[in-house]
Amino acid sequence: MDRIHIVGGAKLHGVIPISGAKNAALPLMIASLLTGETLELANVPRLADITALLRILGNHGVDHMVVGKRPGQTTETGQTIRLTASNVIDTTAPYDLVSTMRASFWVIAPLLARFGEARVSMPGGCAIGTRPVDLLLMAMEQLGATIEIDGGYVVARTKNGLRGGEIHFPKVTVGGTHVALMAAVLANGTTVIENAAREPEVVDLAACLTKMGARIQGAGTPRIVVEGVSRLNGTRHEVLPDRIETGTYAMAVAMTGGDVTLENTRADLLHSALDILATTGTEVTPTADGIRVRRNGAGVAAVDVTTDPFPGFPTDLQAQFMALMTRARGQSHIRETIFENRFMHVQELARLGARIRLEGDLAVVEGVDRLKGAPVMATDLRASVSLVIAGLAAEGETIINRVYHLDRGFEALEAKLGRCGAEIRRERA
Ligand code: EPZ
């Protein structure tokens, strides 16, 4: 298995181009199942999760074509993928494909809406909690689907098509909102989704569906109203920038010090996360097409954080923020309210010398003067990248094992950091 070696201590200086958002690209690709016409997606990141989803869609009969390089493009410019679901031959998503990535479970909604049935294996994904799908199933039942569990598979059916209905989520769920949207756009009548997720990736999916002919109002608010249509058409859509990748590199700069411009991204996608970063003593300035992040000389101030659904502080940046707080002056409290088991990075950060105490959903971090490099390993994507950030600021060498987690969600990580002065290299197995 590949490993990443980092020798810490260098300040970061330069420009980092931000990729398209993995968590927007995945539901957008799945939305291709809603039409027989071609959906062209631009700015799709080159990531293992994208490749895995292409295999899953291919298994249903979706054709895909990756558009070749065009003038002015580099290998890091997002790719353009054309997806055509004109010949879906299989509405089953098997265990061996779905178990590697939780988001692939979402194919259940467009398959059900367009073909009246879907048989999808119960999902897998990062080990960050129990992650049930009860709310996703409830959403489809509210639109008239019958749901059965059969041999580890969820079987969803509808006899005469889905019909509009009321979906009230007792808890904000991003996946639940994606599923509700994709089911409702082809339902007969009006659907109201209450307590909907407001994440930018939901807004991006709704924008693409609208270009495909869907009638959606209120995306980005807790109440989304969808008026079903009988068919959708193809379109072209550009995936929005990855706010988690943006926030991750911003925290890397906050941790090492330096001056980096993150380009092809948007400050508004990060909301409170950037405000919190600013209170740690990092200068954060929006630019014409991105964000400039600077920290010089002065240390990092300790700040408390609680994760929350958007526009709150994202759970997907919690591990990275904790890495930053390990070097802060004083004590900080980090509360995780979205996933019950998302502290896997704590014991690994401790190997680097971090002092963190866990009390249920709360991590109490005592800032230390220095971290020291060590071999570490992580069990999920964001936890892995928090170790990269810590390694960049640690003395000596840090070796990150299980790099395949990083490859699921961070495009060209070593190249992007290396160009800004980080001493980082991949050892291929
Ligand atoms: C999405 O996961 C993201 N994944 C996650 O990013 C992200 O951490 C999460 O949203 C929260 O922002 C993708 O977009 C591909 P949820 P999702 O449904 O949709 C509970 C990453 O690192 N819940 O919003 O699966 C659930 O257990 C990944 O890129 C139920 O109880 O998350 C959790 O506590 C990791 N029943 C909460 O809701 C359900 O049926 C929010 O989960 C569904 C969810």
Automatic annotation (TrEMBL):
Pfam families: EPSP_synthase. Its main location: cytoplasm. It is found in: Cytoplasm. GO terms for biological process: cell division; cell wall organization; peptidoglycan biosynthetic process; regulation of cell shape; UDP-N-acetylgalactosamine biosynthetic process. It catalyses: phosphoenolpyruvate + UDP-N-acetyl-alpha-D-glucosamine = UDP-N-acetyl-3-O-(1-carboxyvinyl)-alpha-D-glucosamine + phosphate. The modification 2-(S-cysteinyl)pyruvic acid O-phosphothioketal is found at residue 126. Belongs to the EPSP synthase family. MurA subfamily. This is UDP-N-acetylglucosamine 1-carboxyvinyltransferase. It comes from Methylobacterium oryzihabitans.
